[in-house]
Design goal:
- About 60% of the residues lie in helices and about 0% in strands.
- The protein is mostly helical.
- Helix 4 packs antiparallel against helix 5 and helix 9 crosses helix 13.
């Protein structure tokens, strides 16, 4: 919690501020570009992104991450430059990089967009614009990465090998498929066999590996691995890459991550439908059980549609952008390349690194795609009388 604010109030206010300011800044851009009616339509539609509505009540770091990326992009959106804008954008990017290492990948298209604006184009030579612009993006990424690394080193009391969860989960999946235990012996209890790993196997989540085996497995999210364990794990995982079972497992998991999350193994990976009582926490109850029950009925009823499928948002946004591309103005094309490029480049590595098919991992991908879809809609409606009124440029 933040100092002076009880419980989770501080983090909730932070999340609301990030999305509130981000949406407000983008709405002002829509007002200047498309007109007042369009900005009203944008302001209504943007916060209604179904996946955001589903996840924003959960205090997951991915909700924070998407908020930081949203506000950073919103602050980048104009050609005007000021030191205050730089002071705002860089800490937002550092905060995103602190939350997830792979968020640096999501920042690349956003920084490319930013370096194409008027202030930055005066820095690099126009003779080799792509090369020089790329160098500038790298020059911005390096201090972002370094700042995030230093902050994590200062703030984190104990560094854990969370990356190892994915590797161990992959080895469990290969073990189940080949009926041979592939997890190194120095990471498991005595007598671990493939059958035991199969009984504790959930194809969409690594959680059961660490909680449902009889022999026990070293949990890298509880304590760090020693050098011998790290070396044995990486070596076993590299060997597993040649197994068809590995690629089948990653493809199944990636489909689950981008899919509708309607299966029995996937529902709980989309959101948390109930309160979990932990032994060291005070008991909790729903503030309004009737409203919660109604909310759950609506959410569960929508699971039969693609409304919570990240893959459908990416496909639909990409298709709409392609259909409108030739009739799209240059400034809006830059928006598409930044937002959709960020969504796509952030999503693809999850094929290899996702430890589970949790929908929260791809919240930014969905939100960026949702923004693109709304911009396409406004651009398509622009010639009509619906939003033909224009505001003057500032």
């Amino acid at each position: 919690s933040l100092k002076g604010l009880p419980g989770t109030s501080g983090i909730i206010l932070t999340i609301c501020a990030l999305y509130g300011f981000g949406f407000a800044i983008l709405t002002s851009t829509v007002m200047r570009r498309f007109g007042g009616v369009a900005s009203l339509l944008f302001a209504i539609l943007v916060p209604l992104c179904p996946v955001l509505v589903l996840l924003i009540s959960h205090l997951w770091t991915d909700v924070l991450l998407a908020g930081f990326l949203l506000l950073a992009f919103a602050a980048m959106r104009d050609a005007a430059f000021s030191i205050w804008r730089l002071i705002l954008i860089m800490p937002l990017c550092v905060a995103a990089a602190c939350i997830r290492h792979n968020s640096l990948i999501a920042l690349i298209p956003l920084l490319w967009f930013w370096t194409g604006l008027t202030f930055w184009t005066s820095i690099w030579s126009r003779k080799r614009p792509i090369l020089n612009r790329g160098i500038l993006v790298i020059a911005l990424l390096l201090p972002l990465w370094l700042s995030a690394h230093v902050l994590r080193s200062v703030l984190v009391k104990q560094r854990l090998d969370t990356w190892a969860v994915t590797l161990m989960f992959d080895l469990q999946a290969v073990s189940v498929s080949t009926s041979v235990n592939r997890i190194p012996k120095n990471l498991t209890g005595e007598g671990m066999q493939a059958q035991e790993l199969a009984e504790a196997f959930n194809p969409y989540s690594a959680t059961k590996l660490f909680s449902a085996t009889r022999s026990g497995v070293a949990n890298p999210t509880v304590g760090p691995l020693d050098p011998n364990q790290r070396q044995a794990l990486v070596s076993a995982w590299l060997t597993a890459l040649s197994e068809p079972a590995y690629w089948q497992h990653r493809m199944r998991l990636f489909r689950g991550l981008l899919g509708t999350h309607r299966g029995s193994d996937l529902v709980g990976l989309a959101d948390s439908p109930q309160i979990v009582a932990y032994k060291d926490n005070p008991p909790m109850v729903f503030a309004n059980p009737t409203a919660h029950q109604l909310y759950r009925l609506i959410v569960d009823g929508l699971r039969g549609t693609p409304i919570f499928s990240a893959g459908w948002y990416l496909i639909l946004a990409g298709g709409l952008i392609a259909l409108r591309w030739r009739r799209t103005q240059d400034w809006l094309r830059d928006y598409y390349l930044a937002l959709y490029g960020s969504a796509l480049i952030y999503t693809l590595p999850y094929f290899f690194i996702a430890p589970s098919a949790e929908l929260r991992y791809v919240l930014w991908s969905v939100l960026a795609s949702w923004l693109c879809m709304i911009f396409v809609l406004l651009d398509w409606l622009r010639p009509s009388k619906i939003i033909a009124t224009h505001m003057p440029e500032f």
